[in-house]
Every structure is written in C-alpha cells, then in structure tokens.
Amino acid sequence: MENQLGNYYRKTGNHDFCGCEILPPPKYEIERIVIDHIVFHNEIKINGQKKQNAFVAYFTPNPYTTLPFCLNSGNAKRLAKKTWSIVVEDGLECQGRIDLLHNIPVRLCRELTRDPSDGGQVYGLRISQLDPAPEPTPDPKKVITADKVDIIIEWAKNQGYGIDNVAKMYDFADDAIRKKISDALIDDLPE
Q1: Burial class of 135 by CB neighbour count within 10 A (0 to 12, 13 to 18, 19+)
Q2: What order of strands is seen across the sheet that includes strand 69-71?
Q3: How far from 96 is each of 86, 99, 165, 169, CA to CA, in Å?
Q4: Alpha-carbon distance 120 to 128, whole Å?
Q5: Alpha-carbon distance 101 to 89, whole Å?
Q6: CA distance 78 to 71
Q7: 15-50 residues labelled b (16+ CB within 10 A) or e (exposed)
Q8: CA 31, CA 105: separation in Å to the nearest integer?
C-alpha cells in the first residue's frame, strides 16, 4: 500500500524483518548495502506465521534499516547464483551455501510478486540482478602549497580552527608550511 508521500508501509504485522519500506523514493532502490552475515533457521515466525527453513540476512550498520532481511526462495537463489564462486570460511567455493557468506555487498530493489494472502500482486523487497554500486571512495585531501598559506590562515582564523582542524581537511606540501600555519594559528589564540 502506498501513502500520499509515496512511502510504502505494511497494513498489519510486526516489524521483525525489513520490507519495501526501507527503499528510499523516488527510485525505490538501495544501490549498495552490505550483508554482514546470514543465519539459517529451521523455524521462524514472520507476521505471526511459522516459516520452515528460512535464511535471515543481517546487514552491517547502514542508514536504511536495523532490521534483518528474511530471504524468500527467490532472493536466496539470486544470492547463491551471484556468490557461487566466492571462497568462504572453509576455503572452498560457496556453491549455494549462503549461510557461510560474510560482508557481501548487494543492491536491493522492489519487484512485483504474488501476494501470499490473496494471490494478487504486491511489491516485494528483492536482491537485484544488477551488481551493487562500487564502494564509495573518500575524496582526496587538497594539498596546501606555499602560495595558499595566507589564504588558509585567514580562513582558519575566521572559522576558529586550529591546526588539527586544518589537517583533517588538507595535506601540507611540506613540514615548513604546516609549521607556518600552526604558528600563525597559535599566535591568534585568545589568552
């Protein structure tokens, strides 16, 4: 069901597992989320109903959800197919043993699927067939050169920054530049 904001929510049930509601609009897709580990359960309760032989994926900390993801057979098969040749903890290839996987990046999306309650169509949370987006790399720090020292000193003084704050954002071309900025910022401290 969709509310006026376009966010998906469930009509009933407990929220022990995540669903489509974690997907941010307007694309309703998470391009990269990392499955920390997967646990196999002989029996598990989902929305009050017992399910036999279920795999539950637990995510690393992320901005989307803290809930685990109960893998249906389609998601389990997709994950097994994507990770078939990955070497797992026993030194052998995964070959469908998805409960041995750790730190696996995936892309999540929504797809129309059969509604188990009435046989109609409903959106379900799915592991996408597309590869996850590459891991984001931090922007490299800019290097302060001799011609920019005075500008950086003035900016740092206006911000109330010390040398530690400047060093978090910039690299120094050499130690003399670092010392000059450090001395200028120390001299400006209130007594």
Answers
A1: exposed
A2: 69-71, 49-59, 29-46, 102-114, 121-127
A3: 10, 9, 48, 45
A4: 22
A5: 8
A6: 10
A7: eebbbbbbbeeeebebbebebebbeeeeebeeeeee
A8: 9
Tally Cβ neighbours within 10 Å of residue 125: 24
**Hey, which residues does 56 pair with through a beta bridge?**
39, 70
What pLDDT, in 10s, does the model give residues 133-176? 898 887 788 888 889 889 998 998 888 888 888 888 888 888 88
Q: Which of 73-77, 109-113, 123-127, 187-191 has the lowest mean pLDDT?
A: 187-191
The token duo for 182 is: 């450090």
Angle, CA of 161, 166 and 172, to the nearest 5°? 150
